[in-house]
Amino acid sequence: MTDDENRVAGLVLAAGGGRRLGGRPKALLPHRGRLLVEHAAEVLRAGGCAGVHVVLGARAEEVRARAALPGCALVDNPDWEQGMGTSLRAGLDALAGTDARAALVLLVDQPGIGPEAVTRVRRAYRSPRSLVSAAYGGVRGHPVLFGAAHWAGVAATATGDRGARAYLKEYADAVELVECGDVAEAYDIDTETDLAHLD
């Protein structure tokens, strides 16, 4: 691993309130004997990320009390109800004060994405201008890596639940797609029906 690769930080967006799950924050959902937020943080760590930041929002104090997140930097997003875009901005703002050269972003509600996909996306990092996304059958998905040169632009366009979608669309020609469909499943835990994916 190069010195620059050592500076790809992991960023878990885990602030949502689980509106379509009856108000159960996704971070606190159980999966394989631990909480989803613990699972996501460990996926980034196992995928080789240097340091993991976790953005909390809904019931943040309960997540802090219940979740085992050793070595993670916990970032509070007081504006979480305004959507995922605010969490992305909060996370990138927190990383701006570190020596990270890139942020590898993983959503807490996609437990089908494991360390193999994270590793592939991380290894595609080349410079602070890198834009890398996992792809599933050639279609862009998560996780996504943003080199530090893009953070200000991403933050400026991250609104509502769209996150970085507008930025990635604008710079589509610059995004390197890394196929991960053979090692990960990019389903979301959004509704009661989706809970069948958890065990």
Share of helical residues: 25-40%
Q: What does the oligomeric state look like here?
A: single chain
Runs in which pLDDT lies below 50 for 5 or more consecutive residues are none
Q: CA-to-CA gap between the ends?
A: 34 Å
Radius of gyration: 15 Å
- Structural shape: globular
Q: Helix segment count?
A: 6
Biggest sheet architecture: 7 strands, mixed
Task: Please report the total strand number as a whole number.
Answer: 9
Mean pLDDT: 93
Residues in β-strands, percent:
15-25%
SSE arrangement, N to C:
EEEHEHEHEHEEHHE
What does the secondary structure layout of this molecule look like, with pairings?
Blueprint: E1 8-14, E2 30-31, E3 34-35, H1 36-46, E4 52-56, H2 60-66, E5 73-76, H3 84-95, E6 102-107, H4 115-123, E7 131-136, E8 139-147, H5 151-157, H6 165-170, E9 176-179
Helix pairs in contact: 3-5
Summary?
The protein contains 6 helices and 9 strands. It is an alpha/beta fold and 199 residues long.
Give a verbal description of the structure.
This protein is of the alpha/beta class and 199 residues long. 26% of the residues lie in helices and 23% in strands. The chain contains six helices and nine strands; from the N terminus they run βββαβαβαβαββααβ. The strands form two sheets. It has a seven-stranded mixed sheet, with helices on both faces. Helix 2 links the parallel strand 4 and strand 5 (73-76). Helix 3 (84-95) packs antiparallel against helix 5. The chain is globular and about 40 Å long. 48% of the residues are buried.
